[in-house]
Amino acid sequence: MLEGLFQPMHLLVIFGIALLVFGPKKLPELGKGIGEGIRGFKSALKEHVDASDKTTIENDSSRRRSSFLSPE
């Protein structure tokens, strides 16, 4: 369905349209803003995953302790 979506010619056309819309002075600022946004999103996602992993590890260890302490 999306096999040939981003071919080099398509990217050149998109870049050309962006150049016409925003102008050559605004494009570096726009790229910088998009890059900072992506970096911020990645770092927030990583923090969320790390916190989720920490919570999972804590829950697993508390389950192991409780199953070890309770006689069956």
Could you give a short account of the major beta sheet? none
Mean of residue pLDDT values: 80
What is the distance, rounded to the nearest whole angstrom, between the alpha carbons of the first and last residues? 55 Å
Low-confidence stretches: none
Record field, number of beta strands: 0
Mass-distribution shape: elongated
Strand content: under 5%
What is the number of helical segments per DSSP (H or I, 4+ residues)? 2
Counting helices, strands and paired strands, the structural category is mainly alpha
Helix content: over 70%
Radius of gyration: 24 Å
**Helix/strand order:** HH
Summarize the structure in short.
The protein is an all-alpha fold. Helix content is 81%, strand content 0%.
Helix and strand arrangement:
Elements: H1 8-22, H2 27-69
Describe what this molecule looks like in 3D:
The protein is mostly helical. The protein contains two helices and no strands. The longest helix has 43 residues, at 27-69. It is elongated, with a radius of gyration of 24 Å. The chain starts with 7 loop residues before the first helix and ends with a helix. The model has no long low-confidence stretch (mean pLDDT 80).
What brief labels describe this structure?
72 residues, mainly alpha, elongated
